[in-house]
Structure formats: structure tokens, C-alpha cells
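hi! just following up on the protien thing from before. the input was this:
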Amino acid sequence: MKVVRREDNGTPVKVVLKSGKDASVHRYHHWIFSGAIKKIYGEPSDGDLVEVFDNKDKYLATGHYQNGSISVRILSFQRERIDEQFYRNRIARALQWRELSGVTDGSTMYRLIHGEGDFLPGLIADLYGRVVVLQIHSAGMYRQRMVISNAIGDILGDSIDAIYDKSGSTLPSAFSAGHENRFLFGSSTPGEVTENGYRFLVNWIEGQKTGFFIDQRDNRRLAASFSGGKRVLNLFGYTGGFSVYTLSNAHSVDTVDSSAPATELAAKNIELNYGDTDNRSSIITADAFDYLEQCKGRYDMIIVDPPAFAKHGSAVANALQGYKKLNMKAIAAVSPGGLIMTFSCSQVVGRENFRRSVFVAAANVGRRVRIVSQLSQPPDHPVNLFHPESEYLKGYLLYVE
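and the predicted 3d structure came back as:
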């Protein structure tokens, strides 16, 4: 068979899968793992386009190659030209969904592109007011970052001032070593944005992820609907998102985080919305696990929103133990008839595994617990039906007798 190599005209390298390893592609899953590959005809570089074939030489898909566990991230399941117009069309459809879903109403920050959920694997883009912040997870998207930046700039036009590439912590090591977070277009400084009418200062240059946990928007609103008159504890409170919402009607809200810069920004966000004379809020820089030990019966509502306990499959067992321990402490601490909002944002921890860890926590503590609501991510973080990994945020609102 003729060897096909990527030339200047963009002809993709040919990747052939082992017999029986094409089932996930037929189910439109966007990842091909290295163990499924029988042969690669050529020597693709990280980020090159490749065409995927089954063992009978039938075309299956086109995607970005990367030397690693996930060897191909599929862009299209049909033969089409992967060029600037391709990215422009996908980005335009992503924005169309945001407008249709209503996430743009009353908010100036939302997720514009959610990787596989928007059929652009490896690409995250969040809008903060007039700035788009990118976090790129794959070599292929990184090599196309200027094409992507130009497409976003053309589609959003005068509504944005800048596009910032903040991929230093998310790129594969071969690319992150030489990467410097920088503006791809325009310039701006971190400032104020709104979400459902609430005001927030977001530091998208130095903050975690792209600067704010936009994925909890709907869950923050739900928390506020249940917090009336309650003593609320916001654990892993970061910059105070849940605190700002629940302070709208709570008796009091305590925000706990181990990061002093985060709690300082939380205090500013609370003051921005409620002024400096509201004495219902306390900001506490402390370890969440340690803090829970000393507050039995003090709170009527506890929000437990930790960082990801597992980023790789090998860490799942330890992560589940961590979730169990944390939820045991929260269930033991909340006052009778109290509420707990508990979350996992670990992609590799499935909903059933997380639910089981919460169940074991409740059983070990010996309190009766009801699930009031099952929680997930908002519409601007769409879940690709064929790619379950895009549903990474899962949670429960619990009523504890």
C-alpha cells in the first residue's frame, strides 16, 4: 500500500484501526485511543490532520493526531475540508446555541465553546464581558489557535476587545514548555462582569481555570432559591460565587477557602453586590476538611464544591475515598433538617460512582438523607450525547434529617 504523508497541501496521514476497534467511532465518540490503532501510514507530527479507516479500508473520520493515550481527536465523521471556514461554522453554531438557550440574557460571562460538547474537541473558550479566554487541551487546536482566534473575532466583531490564550496549564507537555499565555488579539485588563444580575470581579489572567467557575451558574441560582433565612457555609468558596447568590436572602453566609487570594477576591465580590456595611458575611481562609470538624450544627445549608479530586483514571479510587470522607463530614455537621449541595467536577468520576460515595458517606454517618435534586452543568456546557465524558459536573442537593 502506498505510504501517505502530510504534505503542504494538507493531505492527511492514514490511520488504520484494529479489527473490532471501530465500534466507538460508529457510535460517534470523538476519541480514538492508541491501543485501537493497527497501523499509521506515515509519521504524523502532533496536531497533524489524519484520516481514520477501519481494518477493511473503509473511511471513518478525520481528526487531529497526538502522540499519547488519546491518539486522535475526531473533528468530523465525514470527509470535508478542515479549514478556517470549518472552524468558523462550528463556532458560529456554538454561539447560536448560547443565544437560543438564553445564557446570554442577563449575563456577560458564559462558555462560548465547550470542547466535544460543541464538536470541537480540545478547545475551551469563555467570554468575560468583552474578552474571550481560550484554554486549549490538544496539539491540533493549539496549532490552529490563530485560525480559531480570527474566526471568533470575525463572528463576535465589535462586541469584544481581546482574545487571550491561557493554555499554559492545559497543553500537552511538548507544547506547554514553550508556551506563554498572551493576547492573540487586542488587549484588556481583568474587570467586572455580570451573571444573572450579580456583579463579579474576575481575574482571568491569574485565576483558576479561565478565571471563574461559569459551570455552576444554574446551581448558584438554585442554591439561592433554598437559602432563605438559612445559615449558609460555602466550602471551597473560591471567589464567592455561591456566597454572592445565597446572601440575597440568607441569614448569614460563611465563605471558606484555603487560598488567601481567592478569599480576598470573594470579599470584594460580596462588597461589590452588598456594600461594606452588610455584616451577614464572614470570609475564612482555612482547610475545608479541618473547618468541618468544628462546626457541627452551626449551619442549615452547606455547599461542598471541591476541585477535581481525580484528573486521571488511575486516581479514581483515591478520589472516591476523598469524596466519601468530605461528605461524611458535611452530613455529620449540617443541622437537622438542613441542606447540602455536593459536587464532583472530576471527569473520570462517573455519576454513579459519585452517588455511591455520597450514599456510603450518609450510611456511615447514620443520618437519613433524601435527594432533592440531581445537579449538572448549564446549557453553555452542552453534553455531547455520543461523548459522555463531556458531562463532567455532577452533584446532588440533599435534605438531611
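Residues 13-76 form a domain with the Archaeosine Trna-guanine Transglycosylase; Chain: A, domain 4 fold (CATH 2.30.130.10).
The two ends are 69 Å apart (CA to CA).
cheers
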